[in-house]
Protein 1
Amino acid sequence: MFYSISRVCKSWCSAVLDVLFPSTGLLDLTKVDTYPECLRKEYMRFLKILLDTRPKAQWHTFVPPHTVWLKEHAILYIAQRSPCLKFLHMNILRLDPYHMAFPYWKNLKEYSCPIFMLRGSSDLISCLGNYCKNLQHLGLCGIIGSETASFIVKHLLELESLSLKKSSLTLDALLIFDGHAKLRILDLEHCLFVDAEVLKLFYRRAGVKAWLLKKPGTKAKKWNEEIHEKVSGNKRYIHCEEALCLECSWAY
Ligand SMILES: [Zn+2]
């Protein structure tokens, strides 16, 4: 399909684009993850044609490939041609090459990356805060102490919902989020609440998902016994069944 049809005529080329990128407005590049090496260049060539021929304003959602690594100039090319982007769903380990794209995505409303962050999130948060002033939803997974929580609250003033699924965080960090003026929903499913000293151990051992690290003798704090009383109660908190949860029971 890549090699022959595209060279026949414009309508055939358009038909190929419709197969590769079937949803109007959704720039989902995960299909390229499944292609053999020899077809990836062709895919990227079609992506360029797509971006050059379709209206820039139509792109509302971008999902980068999970395993195929986009070069910086490719990320920049996409960003410059998708100025109305609202939703960015990442599923990759290295986020820093994407930071240069944020100045072009000023309308971003939602940023999510469920992959555990190996490094600090401060560069990402400051980029989002500087360029995407209307960001309303943030989804992250990581080790979150009071410093990171303060950073998020300070830079993302318009945040309405925050998802920290499978993160490890301190109670202080939660209380800082609790004080965010506009935040209404905190998704804390499979999160572990631990003391700041234990959080430091997670930092040292980082390399796999924080919540999977098991330290004998350490117990996570329970929502009903230790957390419920301390939060303001004016936000919606989503959390799992802790000791009854198949994912988290080991920590209680
Ligand atoms: Zn759980």
Protein 2
Amino acid sequence: MLWTLLSSALFAVAAPAGNNENDQESKSLKGMERKYKRNIREVLEKRDRHHKCNSRTVSIRREWGSMSKGDRLDYIKAVECLTKKASISNPAEVPGARNRLDDFAAAHIQETNNIHFNGNLYAWHRHFVWTYEQTLRNECGYQGAQPYWDWTLSADDPRLSPVFDGSKYSMGGNGKVIPHGATLLTAFGKDFTLPPGTGGGCIEKGPFSDLKVNLGVNPVILPATAAAAAANAAATASAGNALTNVTTVEATIKVNTTGINPALQYNPRCLTRDINLFWSKQTHTSDVEFLLGCTTVDCLEKRADGWELAPEVPQPLIHAAGHFAVGGLQNDPFASPGDPIFYLHHGQFDRVWSIWQGQDLKNRVDQVGGTKTPFNVPPSALVTPDDILAFGAVAKPIKHRDTHSTIDGQYCYMYD
Ligand SMILES: [Cu+2]
């Protein structure tokens, strides 16, 4: 009796502490990453060796900074190869595409209004990145897996990260420093004003500093001041950088006379970046943990895209923050896949979905949520697993459900 009383008293004291610890573990990003990997491996280990996707055949996507220098060079070489292969897009539909990387940008431009701020965001981009990875392997001899950029590792200053340090083992550095004002953006029926970052011009150092971007319209970038605008114009004249014609709003307004989306027309220019610490600071571990606190995929999308954002309740919007932290072409919601960094950012974005699914595979893998229009404007039907997703010239259409599991159907990959 005494023992019973004593043990129940002990239990009463010990249990809440234990729960709190488990709770903290299960809510921390590290804890969730571990659980995801444990759960996926458990499924793979139960499969016999005849299963197409088992623990021996699964490909492991790794964080850029944890890859060997040789592996990083292999990846860079494959991407460069892609930019030298002829486009397969229909020139009547995509007159501006010149190479295989352009084909990917074109597919994204064509689908932009169907795949953002709605229930297709995660699914469409998963298949898009997977298709890119397969194309690097099938057409450019790449043997590795798609790398990702874990934003949380460089949230304070991406310029210092192995992804952006400008060395030959990076994905290229920041854009040239050019004083400039805000970038104005109209997309998805909304106007956005993005604060200027730390660069603004063409990539100066490392891989992709000589990359020619062919698709997308010139952004609307306001001059910082009159003096800055003059300096900007001088720099533009000597360096031939991409800020040409963007110092006034009026100069950039294009009239569409051909019936073809201007973003699909030929507009050759350099690749710009504008690493932005305001946005990178919204990609800290705590921001990802906030996102992963969701129990429905609808919540996961809305938090990733800042639907809950209100001035009095600051909340991260991780998906956009990853793009805007790089800036330049990454500020363009249509043509951003023209910068190879897109696929490392979306690798990490896909990883976040995978980690979320991996907390409860049974209940989360096949969850869909949200509707088909950006911000549900105009109001539209709920997304279903049988909906068809289209990928322009880069991939055959697939069903939404075909994207749900990374270890079934066409897919066989996981994150390290
Ligand atoms: Cu996108």
Protein 3
Amino acid sequence: MPENKPKKLTSKEPLLEYDIPDNQHNFDRVWALLKEEYPDAKPSLNYRNPLELLVATILSAQSTDVQINRVTENLFKKYRTAEDYASADIRELEVDIYSTGFYKNKAKNLKAATQLLVERYDGEVPDTMDELVTLPGVGRKTANIVLARAFGVIEGIAVDTHVKRVSGRLGFTRHTGPEKIEQDLISLARKEDLDSISMTLIYHGRKVCQARKPRCHVCVVKELCPSSIIFIGE
Ligand code: SF4
């Protein structure tokens, strides 16, 4: 554990709240402990095909998997093909996904994305990163999830708010943009681990390294984490 508490940053400085020292040399040890702690870290969204996974992942922004599963249980009965979403009345679609939050934006993206699927891909979800990120509402995070879960293609690491926070606190990245964080993690991880890094960090972020009050005293990597001194000392 570092001896000196890192300097607190002003709001104009780029990293997280503190100037967390680089800790990339400890990645393998931290990763081994986290993998052991969360051996079954898997996404819990329900879906039966690539289209349902794409829809569920677009809806999951700023929501929980439990909430999305509640909504998609009925949604997937009503909308079965890309054409069903593409031709849906936008107000009706908004009502159908209302409880996922940000429903207006999500409905707009769902319609636009599925219209593109119908126009360009015969209603099917494409299986490459380059094609997926052309769909409205689909960034690298969503594309990585769809590629890995629907097609078994491991292209990169999905970076959400938990992955961003946890990897920053652990000193694995000094970046705040998802694409650069993804590149930092890819450079540290073994290829065979790329698929599980995102969900493992998400589990750790949800259960222990929580945004407001990280539970450092029960954290399995506290001895290797440069941020533990900040939070335990507070
Ligand atoms: S020691 Fe604290 S800050 Fe570091 S990973 Fe664990 S919970 Fe997060």
